[in-house]
Amino acid sequence: MFSFWRNLGLTRAAAVFFSIPRQALGQCSSRTGGCLIPNRESSGSRYNVPPSAEFVARVSGISTMAKLPYRETADGLDAAFIGVPIDTGTSNRPGARFGPRQIRAESALLRAYNSGTRAAPYESLMVADIGDVNVNLYDLKDTCKRITEAYRKILATGCIPLTLGGDHTIAYPILQAVAEKHGPVGLVHVDAHADTSDVVLGERIGHGTPFRRCVEEGLLDCQRVVQIGLRGSGYSADSYEWSRAQGFRVVQVEECWFKSLSPLMSEVRAQMGVGPVYLSFDIDALDPGFAPGTGTPEIAGLTPIQGVEIIRGCRGLNLVGCDLVEVSPPYDTTGNTALTGANLLFEMLCVLPKMKYY
Ligand SMILES: [Mn+2]
């Protein structure tokens, strides 16, 4: 029956009228030939539409982000999920190199619509998974070069990258490519840590230093930077002095406890204005009770609800790129940290420019 209506080329409105589940449209039903790969031709949509679990078992198929098609390049895409599998920049627990794979695996639970915001990402944007940057696990500086080169190519196509980390080192080479295209960008940085250290163990590149390097190279519009969720013991009494001296707004976690972050986000939207903004979300911003699978956990963190409020609060901003970093599967015994990461990445997709909301 579904394929009958689909072949008639029914519009969404007509489908609703006939009470056909919306996600039934555009899917290869197992009853109509066992097609497991989503494709636009069969869906009649001009966008990539992941297969619905109503017709294709979640556990089947090759693991891509949100069960989207895999593409070799970003050509023709409005947004792309891309993995950067490194943990050679970590200072404590390793494992984030496995983050992209585990996030993809857990992302099989994602569905096509955002029930909370009514966003319809796969009716709004052409999205695909473009695989991973081929990193150099033996040379972090070479890895950074490879990342910048890869993102330069992605950004040249006009595609917005949604990155699956990987440790937080990757934000620096990504922002090099982003600033090359857009100029200095605003930054919404959600994290337990400021990641603005200068030199650690004699090295300037690592997951504790990316935003110091970004400032030094003029990649950030420092008056349009906010750091949310910072906490933990420090090396001095005022750990965030350097951030504030640059002009960043620092929102320590104590300011977030016991409250909705929606009011904060309306201030952040005013701070960001209409210029380009990059969103960098370290999963360790969340309390380790919710997201234990990470490299440098700190107690008394944000809740997943607050994480979602922050991302939904970015709706309307001129987002030019997003990342979700520091998921470390070896410390994620239930997979729930990766699952949370997958959902936060979906929320990021759902606030990109040109998103359609019902
Ligand atoms: Mn971080």
From TrEMBL:
Stored PROSITE patterns: ARGINASE_1, ARGINASE_2
This protein's UniProt keywords: Hydrolase, Manganese, Metal-binding, Signal
Keyword Aminoacyl-tRNA synthetase: no
Entries under Pfam families matching the protein: Arginase
Gene Ontology molecular function: agmatinase activity; guanidinobutyrase activity; metal ion binding
Cofactor field: Mn(2+)
Cofactor note: Binds 2 manganese ions per subunit.
Similarity-based family: Belongs to the arginase family. Agmatinase subfamily.
The name this protein goes by in its record: Agmatinase (putative)
Organism: Poecilia reticulata
